[in-house]
Amino acid sequence: MVRVRLAIALACGAGLLSACTVGPDYRAPDAEALHVPAAWSGASPAAATDLAAWWRVLGDATLDALEDEAIVGSRDIAIARARLRESRARQQLARAGFFPSVSASLGASRSRTDAASQSFFDAGFDASWEPDVFGGQRRAVEAADADLEAATQDLHAAQVSLAAEVALEYVNVRSLQARLAIARGNLAAQTETLQLTQWRTQAGLTSSLDVEQARTSVEQTRAQLPALETSLAQSRNRLSVLTGVAPGTLDERLAAAAPVPPIPASLAIGIPADTLRQRPDLRAAERRLAAETARVGEAEAARYPALALTGSIGMESLTFAGLGDGGALVARAAAQLAATIFDAGRLRARVQIQDAVQERALHAYESAVLSALEDVENALAQWRHAAERRAALADAAEAARNASLLAQHRYAAGITDFQTVLDTQRTLLAAQDGLEATGADQALAFIRLYKALGGGWNAGAGTNS
């Protein structure tokens, strides 16, 4: 192996400034090797709709406004922008390695002996440069470029997550408001039933057992309200934080109940290959793989000889005024070639470490691709099945409503027992609450689907910070 490196060194030394770059050249991984399907399960392969602002198809002005406020006020987006600025500065630092370093100096010294004392003055410029003979610096710049691109995609990924989180919490707010209204409506109906049983007991038409059962039903329903109100407060607080304001700021604005935004009956979501191109987290993972591949070459280049060129030009004199004399001019130039002869395998170990890091980045990318496909398929399945469940629950809620009304009329007429009334009221509450929750589940599946597709960012905006 030493002979191989020596041969490469001699070949590159023959053309000192020619491009001799050691290490592997990057090749983007082939997604086909992961058996990416041609179409999603149970979905049309039609072209995807505009993903940059997918939430606008829901037609909810409040949600639109919250999304716009979040992209401006979110601390997570601010953190991602700061990381992007850091990566841009690191790229500039890596590129600076191609250029020589020049410094200026001005000095004075004085020495004394037994016989006399003497002053010495010097001023000049020093320059040093390490030619990138074996491409280590070029590989470092490749890695920095890829890191910058990955940081850009990380910003886009943060925008994707933020857009989805805002929509998810907004749907939770509207769903909880609706469920609270259902619980309060049922509480009012059960209170009327309690009053009816109390009247019938006073009239001697039934026993106090019916009154206690009715009171139990009322209090059980009343006990559901604090839990729903707590969840509603938490969702509103979370929305406030996502938009970059203190918890509680949005309480008044979201106090009025509104329905969960209606979900489109059909979806146009493109094909799996589109998702692999669109999702910024996958693009970031691929760029990190490119960066780690370049660093293999950077580590490999450290095993070869390094050439350093230095030079200086200046003036030296025994008096300060003498620095301006032509005879004071001094110029020096030097070249140094240094190579590691023995390091107990340290440089080779660094290459092996970077090889393992590059392999880890490859597997991380492949895992991210498979997870992305899983996310979309899971969201599609949830969306389809929530729609089926909602249709069934709508029929069940209608039947439960009719049964509850009929049971109350029959009880008032003395035709049926009170247990039947209680059973139908509990069934009605469960059916109505389940219907509303399933409607929210369908909306949440819609949101998760567009997050899985990589929607919520615009390639032309948001990276100039």
What do these coordinates show?
The protein is of the alpha+beta class and 465 residues long. Helices cover 60% and strands 10% of the residues. It is built from 9 helices and 4 strands; from the N terminus they run H-H-H-E-E-H-H-H-H-E-E-H-H. The protein has helices at residues 2-14, 61-73, 75-96, 136-202, 208-242, 272-278, 280-301, 346-412, 418-452; strands at 101-112, 117-129, 306-317, 329-338. It has a 4-stranded antiparallel β-sheet, with no helix packed on it. Strand 1 and strand 2 form a beta hairpin. Helix 4 runs antiparallel to helix 7 (280-301). It is elongated, with a radius of gyration of 37 Å.
Quick summary:
The chain has 465 residues and is of the alpha+beta class.
